[in-house]
């Protein structure tokens, strides 16, 4: 399934040291009323919390990395859940030896420095996350 979109606003900026990365990106989307879009970022974090969805158990497990890491890549999207903009993002983080860790960005990941871009999309159709029976995840509905 897919929907057609047109480009909307582009917002670029940076986050302050100590902010919660996911919460700060979500607040930006909410403050700018971006209900559909993409987000990307690079930078560094002082600690990270990543989710891994166990498909058989249909439950998230969390990986806590209590050390400074580079944000090698953050990519995600913005859509609606429970009536407000929600950011779904995955990150790849690198350590001092260049080793990478990755997963579903969870709250508890703290910014050391972060430069982001948010691309808004405009569409006649809004994407609203709803629980999906086959996966147990909040996904975009089939239409
Ligand atoms: Zn995810």
Structure description:
The chain is mainly beta and 143 residues long. The protein has one domain (9-122): Hypothetical protein, similar to alpha- acetolactate decarboxylase, domain 2 (60s Ribosomal Protein L30, Chain: A). It has one helix at 21-31; strands spanning 6-15, 37-54, 59-65, 69-81, 84-94, 100-105, 110-122, 130-131, 138-139. Strands 1, 2, 3, 4, 5, 6 and 7 form a seven-stranded antiparallel beta sheet that branches. The radius of gyration is 15 Å and the shape is globular. The N and C termini lie close together (8 Å). The model has no long low-confidence stretch (mean pLDDT 96). It binds zinc ion.
Give the averaged pLDDT, no decimals.
96
Query: What ranges have pLDDT less than 50 throughout 5 or more consecutive residues?
Result: none
CATH topology descriptor:
60s Ribosomal Protein L30, Chain: A
Number of separate structural domains:
1
Number of strands: 9
Quick one: biggest sheet? 7 strands, antiparallel
Q: How many DSSP helices?
A: 1
Q: Architecture, CATH level 2?
A: 2-Layer Sandwich
Level-1 CATH class name? Alpha Beta
Q: Give the helices and strands as they follow along the chain.
A: EHEEEEEEEE
Q: Into which percent range does the helicity of residues fall?
A: under 10%
List keywords for this structure.
143 residues; 57% strand; globular; two-stranded antiparallel ribbon; binds zinc ion; single chain; mainly beta; 1 helix; 60s Ribosomal Protein L30, Chain: A
Give a brief outline of the structure:
The protein is mainly beta and 143 residues long. The protein is 8% helix and 57% strand. It contains 1 helix and 9 strands, in the order E-H-E-E-E-E-E-E-E-E.
């Amino acid at each position: 399934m897919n929907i057609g979109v047109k480009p909307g606003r582009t917002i670029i900026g940076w986050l302050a040291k100590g902010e919660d990365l996911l919460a700060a990106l979500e607040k930006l989307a909410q403050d700018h009323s971006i209900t559909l879009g993409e987000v990307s970022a690079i930078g560094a974090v002082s600690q990270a919390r990543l989710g891994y969805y166990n498909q058989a158990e249909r439950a998230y497990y969390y990986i806590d990395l209590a050390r400074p890491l580079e944000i090698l890549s953050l990519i995600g999207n913005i859509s609606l859940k429970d009536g407000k903009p929600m950011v779904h993002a995955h990150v790849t983080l690198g350590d001092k030896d260049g080793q990478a860790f990755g997963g579903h960005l969870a709250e508890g990941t703290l910014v050391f420095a972060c430069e982001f871009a948010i691309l808004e999309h405009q569409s006649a159709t809004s994407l609203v996350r709803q629980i999906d029976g086959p996966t147990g995840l909040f996904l975009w509905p089939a239409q």
